[in-house]
Amino acid sequence: MVDKPVRPEHVESSSPDLKTELLARLRDTVPEAFGEGKLNLEKLREFAGDSVASGPERFSFSWAGKRDSMALLQNPTRATLLPVVSESVDFEAAQHVFIEGDNLEVLKLLYRSYFGRVRMIYIDPPYNTGSEFIYPDDFSDPLDNYLRLTGQKDGNGDYQSSKIEKSGRIHSNWLSMMYPRLAVARQLLRDDGVIFVSIDDHEVHNLRSLLNEVFGEENFVATVIWQKVFAPKNTARQFSEDHDYVVVYARNAATWTPVLLPRTEEANARYSNPDNDPRGDWTSGDLTARNYYSEGLYEVTSPSGKQFKPTMGTYWRVKKEKFLSLDADRRVWWGENGKNMPRLKRFLKDVKPGIVPQTLWKHEDVGHTQESKKELLECVKYGNTDNVLDSVKPTRLIQRMLTIGTSPENGDIVLDFFAGSSTTGHAVLKQNREDGGRRRYVGVQFPEPLPVPESRLKTLGDVSKERLRSVISRKAEAPQAELDLKDEMPEGFRVFKLAESNLKRWSGIASKDPEAYAQELIKFADPLIPGWESEALIWEVALREGYSLTSRVEKLPAVDGHTFWRVIDSDRDQFFYACLDTSLTLEAVAPLELTGEILLVCRDQALDDTLAANLALQCRLKVI
Questions:
Q1: For residue 85, how many other CB atoms are within 10 A of its CB?
Q2: Averaged over 541-545, what is the pLDDT?
Q3: What is the 3-state composition of the chain as percent helix, strand, coil, each rounded to the nearest 5?
Q4: Distance, CA of 229 to CA of 71 (rounded, Å)
Q5: Cα 137 from Cα 135, distance rounded (Å)
Q6: What residues pair up with 227 in beta bridges, in sequence order?
Q7: Which range, of 69-78, 127-136, 322-331, 406-415, averages the lowest pLDDT?
Q8: d(CA 384, CA 593)
Q9: Fewest CB atoms less than 10 Å from the CB: which of 118, 121, 213, 544?
Q10: Is 234 exposed, middle or buried (CB count within 10 Å of its CB: 0-12, 13-18, 19+)?
Q11: In sequence order, which residues have a C-beta less than 8 Å from that of residue 531 and are 6 or more positions away?
């Protein structure tokens, strides 16, 4: 019997099929619910018991177009991300990433590389203000639509602006745009991750329902009110709108807790030590409450001999024995002369090291809209002030979220897939400088044209990159004495752009003519598109294999005329080798010292059956 030739596995030509991935995780968790390779809903219901809702009498959130938006979510992308070194800052060392492209396609591309790795997401999506927004999702071919809209492909489509008066405020369109993006983004969050979403009054109610749908209503944390202006608008016809919202959901609210905010001098100033207590500064709190407590109606006597009972309708918070114990420990304050209603002493040394976040964020604490525009103009010099964004947020607002939702020292990833002018990136750089943090920014922005394009600033993506460059360069110009350069995280950023795959796309053959079929197969003997470039293809393979965009790509010294590449992802402690030559030998591969755990990627046409079989025994072999 002749052994069947070994054919290595192929590198994936698209992003993961999210439906298949979901079913795989469900099969791993509830194998009883599957039979003959398919999900059996009846068995799943039996397994889940009373927790499965059935029948028409149940709450659900739906809108026109929901089914199509779910299908769009499940549609894999064949796009790739192209590195643009010339627009980056310190590409080799950079730990921050900025991506230009349709954010749904980009999120799908990031799925393998960043699944369960993002600590915090902040987005400021288009508010549904009555204008036709950008991100015109096309179910049939999202990538082709994106390339056409951005002028990368011939066609009649022009750029779309986020402010085209066309369809008015249609909630369904907005929800259909948001749903698949939030659904993919949720998969990128860590178990201890959190998402903050800015929104106004027009869609906050629908956003809450949508986030309940995607994250689960049990993972709702809070709705924050941000005071965005510091003075009323007297020109308002009815009310002056002084606030926006920030809606907060955790990946798992049962275990997520916010990082406490630093205590302020104002908060500490409430503590003093009028009786020179050796335990330090303290403040006093009421010892009574309105909640009925059967053992809270006793009478106490002050040091002056005056007797006190709770006022009518209130009760002591503790039993009499506990009260007497606190008094003996000098934890009850009777006033300077010992004649006042008793109060409980709370010592500064016993309070939490920080302050629990509140849901009202005042402009003096986190900034306002005028401050945000000033910040942007300091970084990006516009020739035309019409290009200033109306909805830009202050960095202090996002720094508050970074303080609550991330840790300085752990290299937390912060994602913003509606990056705008990269306020989030600016805030990450600022916060890292202030607390020595190592947070890493990943921003995604559609290259939307500015209202008045300029020679160097034509799109919103250009504004983002210019702002990041400015913030980085201004630190470099700062006096050395003001900087703490110990173990400093590199501040550069890598630019990537959404692009067509380097792999040809098989669309089938309409003709039944065997000759036509044979000719088409000949075209696919080499699966790479004409004009492909090595580094672009290496990065595409890295993405398909789940490597971070901060991975290091090395071109190794040639061996017997063969060129090898090594891609190292320090974050995930993994690496692979690649050879893109049209031929390969065992002798050329030998210096790599391959083992069964090492991945080697090469072109299919470079292998004959014997070489493929030999390499498959030495390593994990994949072909293009």
A1: 10
A2: 96
A3: 35, 20, 45
A4: 40
A5: 6
A6: 243
A7: 127-136
A8: 59
A9: 213
A10: exposed
A11: none
- Alpha-carbon span 136 to 149, nearest angstrom: 9
**What totals of helices (H) and strands (E) does the chain contain, helices first?**
18, 27
Q: Indicate if the alpha-carbon torsion angle 182, 183, 184, 185 is positive or negative.
A: positive
Q: Which two tokens stand for residue 487?
A: 């173990």
The confidence score (pLDDT) of residue 158 equals: 47
Whose structure tokens read 């619910």?
33
* Maximum Cα interatomic distance, the chain, rounded to a whole number of Å: 111
Q: How far apart are CA 605 and CA 621, in angstroms?
A: 14
Domain boundaries, the chain: 17-73, 79-263+355-368+394-499, 265-350, 514-623
Tokens 């008793």 correspond to what residue? Answer: 342
Alpha carbons 93 and 85: distance in angstroms, whole number: 12
**Measuring CA to CA, how many Å separate 217 from each of 210, 251, 553?**
10, 11, 42
Average pLDDT over residues 12-32: 81
Q: Is 171 helix (H, G, I), strand (E, B) or coil?
A: helix
Homologous superfamily (CATH) for 79-263+355-368+394-499:
Vaccinia Virus protein VP39 (3.40.50.150)
Which of 87, 17, 69 has its CA nearest to residue 456?
87
Token reading at 560: 């017997």
Q: How far apart are the C-alpha atoms of 253 and 268, rounded to whole Å? A: 30
247-256, 411-420, 452-461, 568-577 — which is least confidently predicted?
Answer: 452-461
Contact 128, 562 (CB under 8 A): no
In whole angstroms, what is the distance from residue 622 CA to residue 624 CA? 7
Instruction: Tell me which DSSP letter residue 616 carries.
Output: H
Q: Are strands 96-100 and 440-445 parallel, antiparallel or unpaired?
A: parallel
Q: How many angstroms separate the Cα of 331 from the Cα of each of 270, 281, 290, 304, 342? A: 17, 12, 22, 17, 10
Contact 551, 542 (CB under 8 A): yes
- Written as six digits, the tokens of 569 are 């992802």
Amino acid at 477: E
Q: How confident is the model at residue 522 (pLDDT cuts 50, 70, 90)?
A: low
Return the pLDDT at 218. 96
Query: In whole angstroms, what is the distance from residue 142 CA to residue 259 CA?
Result: 39
Question: Which of 277-281, 385-389, 537-541, 555-559 has the weakest average pLDDT?
Answer: 385-389
Q: Look up residue 36 and give its amino acid.
A: E
DSSP states of 211-261: HHHHH-GGGEEEEEEEE--SS--TT-SS----EEEEEEEES-TTT--PPPE
- Model pTM score: 0.84
Residues making up the chain, counted from first to last: 624
CB 427 within 8 A of CB 395: yes
Tens digits of residue pLDDT in 239-256:
888 999 999 999 999 999
Task: Calculate mean pLDDT across residues 202-225.
Answer: 95
